[in-house]
Amino acid sequence: MHRMNHDSPFAALGNTRDTAEVEAQVAAIVGSFAPGHDLTRVGGAFDLLDRAFDGRLSGYQKLKTLYHNRTHTNEVVLCAARMLHGLHLAGHGLDGDHIDAALIGALMHDVGYLMSDEEASGTGAQFTASHVMRGVEFTRRHLADLPADLLETTTKVIMLTDHRKRPDWVTFDNLQQQRAAYATATADLIGQMANREYLERVLLLYFEFVEARMGGFADIHDLLEKTTAFYRLTKGRLDQDLNGMSACLARHFAEQQGTERNFYQESIDRNLDYLDRVVRTEREHRFERLKRGGVVEKVLELGGSD
């Protein structure tokens, strides 16, 4: 039976392609639990990222990575705002500076994929292993006007999105700082895997891995086949390393949409169920089952069907 669209958990997560809509949503969510909070600094970070990713920031080329694009950043900052709301409702709310650090860190967490004018070749994916610390450097340079404590916390938030490292590689000064970083790191993982086009976008991630010379995948189908196992690892990180903090999202949706459901988890489950069907299909017919967002056409253009 075809489910009505209003029952789709994906629909509940909103449109992350439209940056202005995402910024307005973030402001509305923060306004719902911290009504006096001034979002000027967060707005400045949105503006900086707009200019940087569009190639309007002096010294930088526009963002070229296929997977780590503006939509990804949008889904992370929106999920981070929902996380902060859920934490507030659970009695673990953050003060104004830590709200800012979580959201600005979410916006800047993948800015390290940006290439400077001097970096002549590649898409930025060659910096996969170093992009987190490149993002920290970018943030320190371009958001130097932020108060020193806030800038320091923001860089720790960015550092915790290096999911190849255990969270204890970052030393936190206090519980608020840790919560801000855990909220954004959680949003980074959950936001992308809950996206309606996640399975298609995994195909684009393959090309980033090839460019980064990250082995482990024989071909694009091998990456698809290993994505369920990747999720199991990710779930371990979310539940153990990041303290299962994503559970607080259900509180956010209960207040905002009147139903205590974690639409992120439901969307991830739906993606994984569909992935299971895709990988049981013969390789030559798999792409026929991945229709969203015009991604497969781009993959075929890039020669990814082999």
Describe this structure in words.
- This protein has about 300 residues and is mainly alpha-helical.
- The protein has one domain (about 15-300): Orthogonal Bundle (Catalytic domain of cyclic nucleotide phosphodiesterase 4b2b).
- The protein contains 14 helices and no strands.
- It has helices spanning about 10-15, 20-35, 40-55, 70-90, 95-110, 130-140, 150-160, 175-195, 200-210, 220-240, 250-255, 265-280, 285, 295-300.
- The relative contact order is 0.13.
| Radius of gyration of CA atoms, rounded to a whole number | 19 Å
Number of helices: 14
Helix content: 55-70%
Oligomer description: single chain
Mean of residue pLDDT values:
93
Question: What sort of overall outline do the alpha carbons produce when their principal axes are compared?
Answer: globular
Instruction: Report the uncertain regions.
Output: 1-6
Counted up, domains total 1
Structural class: mainly alpha
- In the CATH scheme, the class would be Mainly Alpha
What proportion strand?
under 5%
The CATH topology is what? Answer: Catalytic domain of cyclic nucleotide phosphodiesterase 4b2b
Span of the ends, CA to CA = 34 Å
What letter string, H or E per element, gives the SSE order? HHHHHHHHHHHHHH
Largest sheet, strands/sense/barrel: none
**CATH arch. level architecture:** Orthogonal Bundle
What is the tally of beta strands? 0
Observed structural traits:
306 residues; mainly alpha; Catalytic domain of cyclic nucleotide phosphodiesterase 4b2b; 0% strand
